[in-house]
Amino acid sequence: MTNSSPRSLHLISVVVPVYNEASCLEALHARLSAVLDHHPDVQREFIFVDDGSRDGSFDMLVELGRRDPAVKALRFARNFGKESAMAAGLRAAVGDIVVLMDSDLQHPPEVIPQMIERWQDGAQMVIAVRRSRTTDPLGRRLFTRGFYHFFRALCEVDIPEGAGDFRLFDRRVVDAINALPERNRFMKGITSWVGFRQEEIEFEVAERAGGVSSFSTLRLLRYAIDGLSSFSMVPLRVWSLAGVILAGLSGLYGIYILGEVLVLGVRTPGFPTIMVSMLFVSGVQLISLGVIGEYVGRIFTEVKHRPLYLVADEVGFAPPTALPPS
Ligand code: UDP
Ligand code: MG
Fold it and tell me: Is the CB of 144 under 6 A from ligand 1?
């Protein structure tokens, strides 16, 4: 599609996961509203998903909802994690396009008009890629870079460098994502996996408007392992290769020892060799068991068929339609 025939845009949904962000919500809502005021003929809905916050974020959302009918909010029964919050938001959104963004204002709302423009030019997913990561500590930057290089090398899906969860989706893409049945959600992988016409734009990531990041090193590591094991079989398969190589090497070593015995006669030292090879092989076995455990664990969570999240409260959504008076 070209500029001359822009797609029709009646309703835009903005989906925001919220976890202990009471200090940011007011400013976020104000800036989002100001940006969308530039599109006066487009209706809007803001879908905030409170992921079990403990700092009064939900009361804040209720208050915003009282002032602005475009505000809708879901409250989870507990903290289910950002991936679940995003999934809930995407399911609740009914817009022709859906913008997904963080609630801490690290994703500046002012980028949204540019994303809409790209969509009108034909893109079905617009990925906002951060120009630099200077707001993150050095250790975390190195870890993230390392992870994405590793991920791209191992997995069938490709994640653009610097791509976060700040994205715009066409309705078709949202429907496709909502139709995926898996419980272990790794949104960055899922969004690449679905394909569609994706385009990237750059933005400068801002400092948090308040509060603190809720991703500790341990939580990031968990996230990395989840992502890898949802989208790659390589960690499972690599062990058969390692086994073949090890078996081959020990076969060669056996031949060598046989030769040695034939030529030099029996010599008994060799305790170190035995110890080293035994320890090495047991280490390899333990690692491979761990990897298999990781995948079995995933199968376990999938077969349990538990819901991704539980909603405790909601505001701003239309009440269930009453039966017409008879
Ligand atoms: N978030 C969430 N549930 C969680 C952790 C985070 O919904 O369990 C939300 C959080 O409110 C924010 C976004 O995910 O909107 C990104 O979180 P954060 O800023 O802590 O991560 P960082 O920017 O440091 O990666
Ligand atoms: Mg953040």
Answer: no
Structural domain contains residue 308 = no
The number of beta carbons lying within 10 Å of the beta carbon of residue 297 is 12
> β-pairing, 97-100 with 163-170?
antiparallel
pLDDT in tens, 42-100: 899 999 999 999 988 999 999 999 999 999 999 999 999 898 999 999 999 999 999 99
CA of 199 to the centre of ligand 1 (A): 24
Own/partner contacts of 62-67, CB < 8 Å, gap of 24 or more, are 62/315, 64/25, 64/26, 64/29, 65/315, 65/316
Q: Domain containing 237: what range?
A: 233-303
Give the angle subtended at the CA of 97 by the CAs of 92 and 99, to the nearest 5°. Answer: 75
Is the CB of residue 256 below 6 angstroms from any atom belonging to ligand 1? no
The pTM for the full model equals 0.71
In short, whether 214's Cβ falls inside 6 Å of ligand 1 is yes
Question: Which of 16, 19, 134, 205 has the most ligand 1 atoms within 8 A of CB, as the residue to mutate?
Answer: 19
Evaluate whether residue 222 is within a structural domain. no
For residues 173 and 15, what is the distance between their CA atoms, to the nearest angstrom?
14
Q: Are 75 and 160 in a shared domain? A: yes
